[in-house]
Amino acid sequence: MHRTPTGPAAASLADPAEVELATEALARALEESAVARDQRGGHAREERELIRGSGLLNLTTPRAFGGWGHPWQLFFQGLRRLAQVDSALAHVYAFHHLQVATVLLYGTPEQHEYFLLPTVNERLFWGNALNPNDKRALAHDDGDGFIVHGPKSYCSGSVGSDQLTFSAWHEASQSLLIAALPSRHPGISIHGDWDAFGQKQTDSGTVTFNQVRVQAHQALVRPGTVPRPRATLRAQIAQLVLVNLYTGIAQGALAQGLRYTRESSRPFLASGVARAVDDPYVQHRYGELSVLVRPAEVLADLAAHKLDQALALGEDVTAPDRGEVAVAVAQAKAVAHRAAIEVSTQVFELTGAGATASRLGLDRFWRNARVHTLHDPLDYKLRDLGRHALLGRYPEPTSYS
Predict the structure, then answer these.
(1) Is the pLDDT reported for residue 8 higher than 80?
(2) Which listed residue, of 49, 301, 350, 373, carries a Cα 20 to 30 Å from 331's Cα?
(3) Helical packing angle, 233-263 and 363-372, nearest 10°
(4) Are 86 and 31 in contact (CB under 8 A)?
(5) How many whole angstroms separate alpha carbon 239 and alpha carbon 306?
């Protein structure tokens, strides 16, 4: 069963300028409660409805299925804006789009219509249980379908979702089944047990499957399937979600640090200046932080542009085409990772002790960056880039590269 849409339909988002306005309105609405919600944690039901009501959930869905069909570069630029104020809800929003992409890249034309028409018409919000490292959920053959049983962890966006993509390990073929079902399907239980000191409202609960029947038309990737180069671009979309969340966190931390320094910081006694903004060391350090953030923005946009170019090739995309995207994304990921960690940490050295007041919530940028950048090791991105530089080898297609 699908949900019944509530509230008025969103205005047109056909023009990029309209998308920018809708994104800015959503960012400002999320910002109003971001600090309090970060401190409280739990499920942000009302804020998820704000995202649903914005119409932005349909941004990357093709026009053939009622969406706006915008390029990923436009989506990722908006994602960065949301992450500046609330990287947890930005994560939930982004993972909806990642699941739509999962359907488009893995599914057949018939599955595109089956899943995406109701997604738009009924304003469905997608979550995921597709963590490939967790193989506890097992898939067993059952006629032309499968039976899935077991738990999945780190299921971002699952709590409060309407639809789920998920993976289950198929022992016989030593490969994954990837499928999609309604979140309220019999046998599926979603637990709001996410417990981390950052990214508190990503709804990343545990999903358990109790003898869940998956029919043939609900299986997006059957076990043993060899993915086409185009299908492996799904991992690059997932990695670019992280790139832009990290970049947005760095942008947000820098913006809030600058604001606090302008409005509240006191100059150090030995500086000899009347205002903190006139301290040459403060100026120098903010200059250094800006040099961390700007390359992250540029590389994120370049990688998204390469992704859009590859997707535009359709089934003609080649392994080298895919490899060029993977290199660009890995470069952007390494820079964004460092920017998020360094800016969110160093900003406190420039704002002073007063900026650590809990009511300001400036610590959320570091906590969110620290938790989120542990998604997959940076060292492996750097190894891939080193291999490409030395040997001309492209990153091996996996769920993370």
Answers:
(1) no
(2) 350
(3) 160
(4) yes
(5) 13
